[in-house]
Each structure stands twice: as structure tokens, then as C-alpha cells.
Amino acid sequence: MSLKLLHETETEDPILSVVNLIDIFLVIIAALLITVAQNPLINPFNKQDVTVITDPGKPSMEVTIKKGEKIEKYKANGSIGSGDGEKAGVAYRMKDGSMVYVPEGETPASAPALAGQ
Q: From start to end of 2-112, where are the E strands?
């Protein structure tokens, strides 16, 4: 009989229910911390600048830029960009992968970087 009474008092102890709830909350908190650590935009310990592009090339494209603690969002409106301006020069990709910019009005022969290429 004493074994049966000992077992009944253990199952009726309300502290065990509280301990189980605390364990569940600790697991939930750990999962949330892991999620925050893996997200580069909301991670407070990430000191790098981050650019995230969602749906690239589609009308619903979004660009999110994080510089320090400042976050900027740009949304595409589906139309082609336009504006006032004029051609400022020409950029050339060299064989080694580098880029050379030649301002408008200069000929490639007068640009020393392009003379031997």
C-alpha cells in the first residue's frame, strides 16, 4: 500500500506541471534565438552591410538594404525606369575581369589603359 500512495503523490504534485511548462518555454526561446541569429537583417550582432533581393527580375521584386542599423526597402512598380540625363562615358571589361571607365569625349586611343589592349 505504501508504494501506491507514494506513486499517487508524485503524479498529483503541481510543481511538476510548472517545471514542464518552463521546459517548453525554454525550447521555444532557444528556437527563436536561433532564428534571429540566422536572419542577416534582424541579427543585432551582425556588423556587415547586407543586401537582400527577393523575386529578382519580376514585377514584384524587392530590394532590402541594411547599412549598420539603417534598413531601406525598395519595391519595383513593374514599369521601366526613366529619367533625364545624358551618356557620361563608356565602361569596358578587360580580359582579366577588371572594368575601365572612359569619360565621354575621350577616344580609346587617348586612354592609356586601353592603348595596349
A: 50-54, 62-67, 70-75, 89-93, 99-103
Q: Would the pLDDT of 12 be above 50?
A: yes
Burial 42-76 (b: 16+ CB within 10 A, else e): eeeeeeeeeeeeeeeeeeeeeebebeeeeeeeeee
Q: Is the pLDDT score of 15 beyond 90?
A: no
The answer to whether 64 and 42 have CB atoms below 8 angstroms apart is: no
- Cα–Cα dist 112/110, whole Å: 6
DSSP one-letter code for 20: H
Residue 100 CB burial class (10 angstroms; 0-12, 13-18, ≥19): middle
The per-residue pLDDT for range 16-71, each reduced to its tens digit, is 778 888 999 999 999 998 888 887 777 766 777 888 888 887 878 888 888 877 88
| CA proximity to 108, closest of 88, 89, 85, 84 | 89
Q: What is the model's pTM?
A: 0.39
